Amino acid sequence: MRVLMIGDIVGRPGRKALLDNLQALRKELKLDFVIANGENAAAGHGITKEIAKQLFATGVDVFTMGNHVWNKKEIIPYIEKEKRIIRPANYPPGTPGVGYSIFETQLGYKLAVINISGRIFMQELDCPFRKIDEILLEIQDKVNIIFVDFHAEATSEKVAMGWYLDGRVTAICGTHTHVQTADERILPEGSAYITDIGMTGPRDSVIGVCTNAVIEKFISQMPRRFEVADGDYQLNAVVIDLNPENGVAKNIQRVFNLE
Ligand code: FE2
Asked: Is 68 one of the annotated active-site residues of the chain?
């Protein structure tokens, strides 16, 4: 079984990357399931119903989110109904939406997708380690193919989560930094791991944003309006092969495609 996890889709260039490539990739790579981080899909901040629908049509099966999940207010009623959009599980109880869900592939295999947020240089949410223990306990009798999008800033927190979950999930893949790391591997107990999948968005940018505004802000220390950069895109993802009978990962490979 083969699953594609796509790194943070940023604005129009990121959406174009999927519109241009995803259907062909699904066929070429014989993908069984596609998970994409969509928290920056709408002008860099959040996602809307229209954009989610457009990207579902390109071949995304499930969106994971992150700290920008609430940036577009209209997401709240939508996320309460649309279970294919998963927000970080460690928000306080009562938060709209769900932090994980179980889906079924076309071949009938059940697969769980969990989104969880880090706490280092991020919002102070509940402990991601304890929260994921709770979730794994809830789903242990239902599913053994489990994908985790750990939306976090600090590499140390992400690496630690990789070791914490090794052998308990199929894959732990980092998102949020928008820079793809070259540390993909199968951990000793059989979980696929990468610190960050990277960004699917404008290539000539500072993690998706127009370069000049970011540089000016760093130098002047004054507020600047940040806009998603234009121009050619990059598509960052990982392809994960696994044994569908036991959920153990066999291989993880980075994708770094350019327009
Ligand atoms: Fe983020």
From this structure: yes
Number of structural domains, the chain?
A: 1
Helix (H, G, I), strand (E, B) or coil at 54: helix
CA–centroid distance, 69 to ligand 1, in Å, is 9
Among the listed residues 68, 151, 176, 178, the single catalytic one is 68
- Distance in angstroms (rounded) separating the CA atoms of residues 17 and 123: 29
Distance in angstroms (rounded) separating the CA atoms of residues 92 and 203: 35
Q: Supply the pTM of this predicted model.
A: 0.97
CATH of the domain at 45: 3.60.21.10
* Close Cβ partners of 33 (under 8 Å, ≥ 6 residues apart): 1, 3, 4, 61, 62, 103, 105, 111
Chain segment 137-169, per-residue pLDDT in tens: 999 999 999 999 999 999 999 999 999 999 999
Question: Which among 10, 8, 13, 9 has a CA at the least distance from the CA of 230?
Answer: 13
State in Å: Cα 136 to ligand 1 middle.
23
Please check whether residue 235 is in contact with residue 255, taking contact to mean a CB–CB distance below 8 angstroms: yes
Parent domain of 164: 2-258
Cβ(169)–Cβ(196) below 8 Å: no
Sort strands 33-37 and 62-64 into parallel, antiparallel or unpaired: parallel
